[in-house]
Structures
1.
Amino acid sequence: MMQGNDGRKNSKKVLIPMYLLGLLIIGSLGFSWWGGLVNDPDSATKDSPGIVVGEGEAVSTEINLGDIANATGKKLVPEGRVNQSVGGAEANTESYTFEIPVTWKEEDGNGMTQGVTGIITATAGPVTTSSSGGADLINVDVATGQSITLDGAAVNVPVTVTMDEPATKDAYEAIKDATITFDVTVSVAKN
């Protein structure tokens, strides 16, 4: 009887590591599969294809100001507060300005002629923050009305982000370390 119990204990000792190894292999295959399906979001801080607009469809991309702050090494502060903020002009800025490259591509079978021109319309969606407030302090200005050519070169859409002065210490505390995001939606209307 003792031998039977030892044999079962040994088989359990072998099965548990085999089971864990199987989970590890399946988990790594699942991770690789998932990573292949997730597209890197268009970010103003990376070299990317930007936004590609098809006929009649608006396209949106999410902008995370944390990515821009990391790329510039500067924090967004209200107008006139750069030199009064910790780090001065080396660590702070009154605005972030960046460009989103937009191309207009023909969809298969839509019958549009290459070289047709259109007008870009770009809008910023609502600003959201990871905190309970402060979104109302962020201003997003997206340039619009640029001419674009079907299947032509990319046209850069400038975006400028500024911040209003918080009225109270509580308003400042709500926004100071918050993650700030907003969508930019771009569409093209044929001339």
2.
Amino acid sequence: MFTMNIEFSIPISYRAMYSKMTIDEIYDYLDWDATLTIKHNNQIFFEEEIAIVEFYWHLLHWYRDFLSGQKQHFIYSTVEHTEPILVFSLKNNNDWAIDSIWKKHEKPFLIKEEILIHEVKKVIKTIMYQIEKPDNSPI
């Protein structure tokens, strides 16, 4: 079993003023962290604090490309690290390898595409709800 979860909380004051942020508030916004946990076979494969807005941007762009038929590797990189932090690599038509510089196991693992996409959609919706949607707004 494969799961990908993200846990964080955005201050309501930021959500309320999302569309009218100053440059200083935007920098604060980019600094928000979240705990990303990836489990495989009920064991933690990856669990780290990540820059949530940056991760969201990368993941959303990859997912939109995927939906348009472009099956490309997902590579989450930051300026703080020389190697990508998290990678989803297409191995064949329906299998993806998950790897990370912070993995808790020695080897990457393979999962089916439909499982990966289900978990990616779940994480995107969670982040979108917290970052982009005002209180009491349906997804």
3.
Amino acid sequence: MSKATLTAIAVLLAGAVGGTYLVKPELFGVSQDESHAVTDAKAPAPAKKKATKKAKKSGSAFEGMALITATDWADTVAKRDALSAEILAEMGGASTADAQRFVQNKDNLKLVAQWIVAQAEVEAMAEAEKRTADAEKNLKNLQEQLAKKKADIPEGCKASDRQQWDIKQLENRIKRAQVAYSTPQTIKDAVASSKAATLMEKIAADPEWIEQLAFSGECVRPGMVLDILVKIADEQPDMFTNRMVRDIATATALEYAKSSWNAQDAVERAAFYIKNYKAGRLNNVFDDIPFWQRRMVCGCKGDNPYGSIASLEWSLENVHIPADQYTGCCWRCAYRLNNIYGDSIHGTQYYNPWEASYRRTEPPLPTM
């Protein structure tokens, strides 16, 4: 498919709906009529009611599901090109009016979402070989370091406390490096598993689910997203039946794949939010935030000690930040370095376009 065709689809569709749909919504901050800011002096604390004990379900969400062994998503370039041809045929012309008419049909929006995911996969394929080689090199380097550390211990002698600590740290790093090396980088690699192939078809056929991947922010490394979702589904038996469980899983997978963070950490992060959502321990606003914000909440700081399960648990018990004080919560919450107009968060203009969306408790910053 020619570059001109790709450009035509992207420009025409973006022009048809402007900032209301296809333009990345996470760039626009909170602009809804309803505000999640609270008026109380203290934020609504997590519910503390002790939930009645129920038998915990176990097993995989795939249990009892008819699995497929092949999908046309395995050849993403051909899939992308077929979707392009279908979109251009349905559009019927190359004008803005044609594009505006096209996006009024929800089935067409699903086509666009599929195309965006396919295009993201084509981009991921271009870097997959290097990423795999880098992961292999890193794993080999760590294994060599571990072998040297062990060789430094004289024969017949016990390792010192420091040597034991160094060896344990390297063993942990090797485990994580092995996860990184074995995590599929592309949809083609992922759908070699019948579970992943089945899930990819399930996502692509569901308008809301595929649109979450395409329209909630950057869709990066969809093959890794798919692999993480399979891993989560294997541990969350109600991922296909409970919408919030599915949303938490998808939001987490998208953010971890975007930054290429550890896939096993993503599974544990999703499990943390799912467990505490079901226990009624999350802040009251969690249920109603739009999906792009759920991505920021569930996928924040995946490579940082502040994002560890222990840190999140501590925050859940001790930190209750009112929504209107979000702007003063330095380093704790996720943020973008530059807003849509290019203003840095470290300057005085960053929040100005959205002043009316928040109730401020402190005087505004002076302008330069």
